[in-house]
Amino acid sequence: MKKVYLAVLLAVCSAACLTPLPAITTLPDVQLPVATQKDATWKSADYDQKPILMVFMGSWCPYCKMTIPAVNVIAEEYGDRVEVISVFMDQDAEAVQKAIKEHDLKVTALYNGGELAETMEVQGLPHSVLFDKKHQAIKHWEGFDPNRVTHFREALDKVVK
Fold it and tell me: Helices in 24-61 by DSSP H: which ranges?
């Protein structure tokens, strides 16, 4: 019985590891509204030559909410060298504002990110993408991981040397 359980577990883990990464390798020109500032727009072009860590979320997503502390830690540690942003799928700024307040999100929160997520081939939430200084995607993380801070640090240390 233990062998069957182990075989099933290995098969599931292997399938998860073999999930192809999105084909998008370059950050498209992004212009999205900022949830906390009326009529403000965040533009990727404003961060030329600066790495960007983009975390796709939904205000309704429990695993996204569990990822917020990791995002805050990384923003505090790397925020002067990396643009850390959250991109919410929500079309309603108020829902995002409520999530920001409830979970103390400390990074710029954008909303109406569904089209960008589709373009970037995001399959699930949370989904994080690290772009280098030339805005080439160098790392993707899909889903919640309690060790996400460590994974973010490992990748960011290579980018911001």
Answer: none
